[in-house]
Amino acid sequence: MSWKRNTPDPPRGYHHGNLKEELVRAALGLIGEKGPNGFTFAEAARLAGVSPAAPYRHYRDKDALLADVAARGFLVFEAALSRAWDQGRPDPETAFHRLGRAYLAFAHDEPAYYSAMFEAGVPLDASPELRSAADRAFQGLRAASEALIALLPATKRPPALMMALHVWAMSHGVAALFGRADGGRRPLPMSAAELLEAGMLIYLQGLGLGSDTRG
C-alpha cells in the first residue's frame, strides 16, 4: 500500500491548509511501504510536501505522529467491531463469530493502521486520545464476552476480562500469522477465518458454550 501525490512538490515552507491530515496520509503510505519503524519524520514531511520543520507545528516527533495514526486506527477498528457485533443479534454466539471475522478483515484490509496500532511500539499512554480509542475497542470485546458468559449458569461463568483477553490473543495471533496482506503471511490449508472460527468453537465448547445453545 502506498500513497503518491500527482502534483508537483510545493515550495519549501509551504503550509497546507490541513497539514495534519496530509501527514497522517503520508505516514500511512510510508508504513505500508516500509513498516512503522522504517521511515523518518523528515520523510513524512517530504511526502506531505512541506519542509522538515513544518510537522513540528502539530507533532512533537515521529512517535507522536504514529500515536495519532494508531488512535485513528483504533477508532476505525472499534467501528468495525461494533458493526459486526450488532448488539449481539440475532444471538450472542452468532454475533461473536462475526466479531472474529471483522477482526481478521480489519487486519487484512487496513495493514498500515494495524501495524501502527500493534507493531510500532508506541505506548498506549503516548496520548490520551490513543489510550481512550484503544480502551473503547477492547471494551467491545469485553462486552461481547459478558453477553456470552451470561448464557452460562452463574456458578460456571469465567471472569469476563479473562475471556476477552483470551479471545483477543487468539484473534490477534491468527491475524498476525495468517491473515496479513503482505509477505509476512504464513501459508495455510484453510482460510484464516476458518482457522479462527474452529479455534473459537473449541474455546467456547470448553466453557460449556456451543452451537447447540444458539437460537
From TrEMBL:
Residues 17-77 form the HTH tetR-type domain. Residues 40-59 bind DNA. The keyword Nucleus does not apply. InterPro entries: Homeodomain-like_sf, HTH-type_TetR-like_transc_reg, HTH_TetR, MT1864/Rv1816-like_C, Tet_transcr_reg_TetR-rel_C_sf. The keyword Lipid metabolism does not apply. Pfam families: TetR_C_33 (PF13305), TetR_N (PF00440). One of its GO terms (molecular function) is transcription cis-regulatory region binding. Keywords: DNA-binding, Transcription, Transcription regulation. This is TetR family transcriptional regulator. It comes from Bosea psychrotolerans.
